[in-house]
Amino acid sequence: xxxxxxxxxxxxxxxxxxxxxxxxxxxxxxxxxxxxxxxxxxxxxxxxxxxxxxxxxxxxxxxxxxxxxxxxxxxxxxxxxxxxxxxxxxxxxxxxxxxxxxxxxxxxxxxxxxxxxxxxxxxxxxxxxxxxxxxxxxxxxxxxxxxxxxxxxxxxxxxxxxxxxxxxxxxxxxxxxxxxxxxxxxxxxxxxxxxxxxxxxxxxxxxxxxxxxxxxxxxxxxxxxxxxxxxxxxxxxxxxxxxxxxxxxxxxxxxxxxxxxxxxx
Length: 265
What we know:
Radius of gyration: 17 Å
Strand order of the largest sheet: 5-4-3-2-1-9-8-7-6
Structural class: alpha/beta
Number of domains: 1
Shape: globular
CATH superfamily: Aldolase class I
CATH topology: TIM Barrel
Number of strands: 9
CATH architecture: Alpha-Beta Barrel
Number of helices: 12
Helix content: 40-55%
Distance between the termini: 30 Å
């Protein structure tokens, strides 16, 4: 049983929903990535979604685009990030880590090398925005061989046939994009998300996490009423962007704790 599956089962027994914070590895600086990961866990994170910086992040809004630019300015690459996860694992063997990014860095490393090194580092899942399940069979086989869960996105515009393909290929959980647009958008319609998730559950047995546009604890709490997980990204990256370097880890911890408290209230 994977760490992701174990985490969701434990939360279900506790009557809780997963909080999945996202930030980009290497932002605001490489040396703060591992302390940030530990701070997220201390604040109540159940799964960490660690962004792999990329020069053309098509699914990300301006806030996360800037975080990628800052990380790339520090020359942070996929190999560095696997080293960060390995360092995190020295003190935390339980919290799942999902890498979120794009195909190019994986293509450059090669499927087998990436999957084997990710497993060795302690990665649990991989969300690759531009690998549709219909076109990444070889990659999926490599992930399966190395016990890595492929996480796929579904959106308000996903047709039933695509949902069926994702339901078959995905492991760990499915990530539902709550709105039409990029990360950080503000036009979130909770009732529409709820209706859509009720329909998706007829085809998907895995937990469903919801992200994009979740800005505060109240919204996270409302989303947790009908989802299995709440993913918070742009709001965390905004805090990283605005906080002084010597306060950024503590301030992100306080922010994530506020989401956790709201979801549990």
